[in-house]
Design brief:
This protein has 8 helices and 18 strands. Strands 1, 2, 3, 4, 5, 6, 7, 8 and 18 form a 9-stranded mixed beta sheet that branches. A 6-stranded mixed beta barrel has the order 9-10-11-12-15-16. The two termini are 21 Å apart. With 357 residues, it is of the alpha+beta class. The structure holds 2-OXO-4-methylpentanoic acid. 2-OXO-4-methylpentanoic acid binds at residues 73, 236, 302-305. Residues 73, 236, 302-305 line the site of 2-OXO-4-methylpentanoic acid.
């Protein structure tokens, strides 16, 4: 499908940031966005890149009432030699379509998803920051825009992509975060939508997150929704626990997100001499292993969060430091290796990087 490129009038051009070290996460957006529509009688139509700006939407649109919405997150990196690269974007395309089918939305052809993102990023490449730890965050999204109050799949959707120059997701940067294990609220249950990247999962996590923040923790670690016994994920990250020579993470049983960074960590940890295990992690056993020193390090993984060290875990009335509470050697090595590949500083033996300019 052709993607039309609409003119960008001067008054729609935004002032650029001047200090990359001050970039936070997702507050600043570039000049243009991609928009493609799906209509029940026509399929995907009218792909265009247009000036970034608000949508005028009927207040009855299904997305506002029944949350028929999905999204993705990936990044573009500017290398020292000026190359622009994406990281495993095909995985985002596949996961987007998995989410679409779960939320009864139309799947988008992978070539259109990828071509749309690549053309948009190329046009906006002056917005990609280059300092260490910065990148251009890409947010593909689909919303249901049919104005009707009956509960049903929409007959009209917007697929759109916006871009945001970003720094670290956590204001602390690459420093340990403190996490609270949530034992009152649950995020997902088998058969639910936990594996889909849909806004409702995040809305329902806000209450637990706020309560944890009040107690001084950055995020909550969710337990399984049935027994509240097995570790699942942190809303913005998959979780890993490193023992002497084994790295453990929760398996993809349908209620956690199939993270692109999670998959990359599993492959990288293997090359760093660690065995990787995807297995159920009993929270009581995990706390015992942290207490007796068997767990040496913990970290989260995500596109936004990259690799984030976890310094302490709190469960019920006990808060334990993990290792010495600082950044562990494996966590640092994984961060350096992953970001080294993403920024073209070290070889990419996996073929993960997709150069687009
Ligand atoms: C991402 O890592 O890209 C996400 O979508 C997580 C989001 C909570 C920022």
């Amino acid at each position: 499908m052709e993607i039309r490129i609409l003119p960008l009038p001067d008054e729609k051009r935004k002032p650029r940031f001047t200090d990359e070290s001050k970039l936070s996460f997702g507050r600043l957006f570039t000049d243009r966005m991609l928009l493609v529509e799906w209509k029940v009688d026509q399929g995907w139509v009218d792909a265009r890149i247009e000036p970034y700006g608000p949508f005028v939407l009927d207040p009855a649109c299904l997305v506002f009432h029944y949350a028929q919405e999905i999204f993705e997150g990936l990044k573009a990196y500017k290398w020292e030699d000026g190359t622009i690269a994406l990281f495993r974007p095909e995985m985002n395309a596949r996961r987007f379509n998995y989410s679409a089918s779960r939320i009864c939305m139309p799947e988008i052809p992978e070539e259109l998803f990828l071509k749309g993102i690549e053309e948009l990023v190329r046009l906006e490449k002056e917005w990609i920051p280059a300092s260490p730890g910065t990148s251009l965050y890409i947010r593909p999204t689909m919303i249901a825009v049919e104005p009707v109050l009956g509960v049903k799949p929409s007959d009209h959707y917007y697929f759109y992509v916006i871009l945001s120059p970003v720094g670290a997701y956590y204001p602390k940067g690459f420093n340990p975060v403190q996490i609270m294990v949530e034992d009152k609220f649950v995020r997902a249950v088998p058969g639910g939508t936990g594996e889909a990247k849909t806004g409702g999962n995040y809305a329902s996590s806000l209450k637990a997150g706020l309560e944890a923040k009040k107690k001084g923790f950055e995020q909550v670690l969710w337990l399984d929704g049935v027994q509240r016994r097995y570790v699942e994920e942190v809303g913005a990250m998959n979780m890993f626990f490193a023992y002497e020579d084994v790295v453990v993470t929760a398996p993809l049983t349908g209620s956690i997100l199939n993270g692109v960074t999670r998959d990359s960590v599993l492959k990288l940890a293997g090359t760093l001499g660690f065995r990787v295990e995807e297995r159920q992690i009993d929270i009581n056993e995990l706390m015992a292993d942290i207490r007796n020193g068997a767990v040496k390090e913990a970290f989260g993984s995500g596109t936004a969060a990259v690799i984030t060290p976890v310094g302490a875990l709190s469960y019920k009335d006990e808060c334990l430091n993990i290792g010495d509470g600082g950044v562990g050697a494996l966590t640092r090595k994984l961060y350096d290796t992953l970001t080294g590949i993403q920024y073209g500083k070290i070889a990419d033996p996996f073929g993960w990087v997709r150069k687009i300019a």
